[in-house]
Structures are given as C-alpha cells and as structure tokens.
Amino acid sequence: MNWKIGDTVSFRRILTQEDFNRFAALSWDDNPIHCDTAFAAKSHFGGTVAHGMFLYSVLSKGLSELIPGPGAIQLEQEMMHPNGTYTGEEIVITLTVKDINADGTLELTTVISKASDPANIKHQGRARVAPCGVKPEFSNAPAAPTVQQEGDDYLYGLKPGMFKEKKRTFTAADLAEYGNLSGDRNPIMREAEFAKAAGFKDVIVPWPLLAGMFSDMLGTDLPGRGTGWMKQKLIYKSAALPGEELTARVEITRLRADKELVNLRSTIVGPDGRLICDGESLVLVRNLEDKGDKGPNFGR
C-alpha cells in the first residue's frame, strides 16, 4: 500500500492479569510490579501494571497488520511509559505515518492511551519500519564500548559501570507463544519461505522478544525487582534466529539519586559477536525490593 504522511490507524485491546503472567513466563521477567498483587499494591502504582515490553508486543501487532503491514521489518523503536497500564483497562493503540524516508522506510509515531480517557497516555514513541519489499542493510559490526555519563556515584547499592549479562536461545515454542499472546502474526516470524524471500536465513525472533531480554534483566537483576521502566531506545543492527545463543547485557551509565533514576546501555550480540540490538534504558528505582548492596555477582 502507498502510505501517505498523516495516515493513521488504531485498534483496541483489554489487558488482563493472565496476560501479564504469560508475558512474565515468556520473557522471564517476573518483576513483582507486574505479577505480585501484594507488592504492587504497596508501590506507587497501587496495583499490578503491564510490562512495557508487553505493550511493545501489542504495538507490534499493529505494525504487522495495519501500518505498514505483513512482512514489516522493525529497525528502530523509541518509547516512553508515562503511566501504568492496569488489569481490565481497555487501551487504544494508534499508529501515524510521520515521514517517508528516501530508502522507503516509514517513520511512525506510536501512542497507547486509555480508551475511556485519551489523555491518560500509557506509551508514546516513534518507530522506523521497513515495509514488505524494502530490504534494509544490516551491519555485522560488534558493539562499541559503553560511555559513562556524569552523575552520582552511588544509589541503593548501584554504581556506574555495574553490568549484568544473560544468555538465551529462543525456540519455535517461544515464537508461537509470542504470536498467541500479542496477536502479532507477522509472517517474517512464522513462515520460513517468506522470511527467506525477505533476505533472512529463516524465520526471525520477534523484536519485542529481544527487547524482553532487557526487561528480564532490568526487572529482576540490575537494578532489580521492583524496577519501573520509563524510557527505552532500540536500534536493530541485524536479525536474530531461533536456535542462536544470544547474549544480552545491561550496564549502568548514569545514576540520578535525587530522582531515583538509572540510565543503562543495553545490547544483544549473537554467537558470532555481531551486534543485534543496541539501546538505551531509563528506569525508576523508587520501588526496588532490595535497596542494599548488590554483591559481587555484578561487574564493575
């Protein structure tokens, strides 16, 4: 389809605690603000809220079905989560074409709001996406060194330079559960022949599942359980295939004690060392379950 600047589409969904629990099992992120009703009730949220990357999964359904449609390849995603999304809330996901680049990729604005209160924004961001037939050039370069920023030296047992790494190999069952939970039926993640025609060796791992590796580490390891995701920037440098052992890493680049905020670099590399995803995270640590020393298991 020939999309035009200003074109917009939207769809709705009601989220449930079962959805949160299924995404926790799929992403390994069982952060108690999503899954533990007693813990969440005592947090500033007042109840369990959806994973930011689960919202990204639902958003990806729109990118795969509406704009630009089946076969879309995600290249960049930026997102902010100014308000929590609670169980039983009906949300509206809206995609709007902001610009069309010379290489054929689309720049989109992405918004998720409460259906009964459009001013209650759950997610707002941007995406750069290649429609079916547009084959972007991916880089096989390794990740560049992380650069530290000026900030505080210590916050709740956290220090600049601390990092955590975790390995994971996604399976066909993971991809099937992702599709069933999110509704994202992009054929590039489901049909080998379609994926090969798009320039890949086989079906590829959904982008929100890759981002879920960060969700897991940020929400359970570093900074830890109770972390709230505020902002995320993701740039996809290459595709990941099921069966590949992927290594995700998050590293603290800045602490802001007065606002209880932590900035981190977030990367995923393949078994051959190629950079798959490069990103930045901003998280709130006000509700950390453990605000003490993180111990010797974290790099410095």
Tell me the fraction of residues in β-strands, as a range: 25-35%
Q: Would you tell me the overall average pLDDT?
A: 92
CATH-defined fold name: Thiol Ester Dehydrase, Chain A
The count of DSSP E runs of length 2 or more, i.e. the number of strands, is 10
CATH architecture classification name: Roll
Largest sheet descriptor: 10 strands, antiparallel
How would you describe the overall organization of this protein?
The chain is an alpha+beta fold and 300 residues long. It has one domain: Hotdog Thioesterase (Thiol Ester Dehydrase, Chain A). The chain has seven helices and ten strands. It has helices spanning 17-27, 32-35, 37-42, 52-65, 172-182, 192-197, 207-220; strands spanning 8-14, 73-80, 90-100, 106-114, 117-130, 163-169, 228-236, 245-256, 261-269, 275-284. The chain has a ten-stranded antiparallel beta sheet, covered by helices on one side. Helix 1 runs antiparallel to helix 5 and helix 4 (52-65) packs antiparallel against helix 7. The longest helix is centred in the first third of the chain and has 14 residues, at 52-65. The radius of gyration is 18 Å and the shape is globular. The N and C termini lie far apart (50 Å). The model has no long low-confidence stretch (mean pLDDT 92).
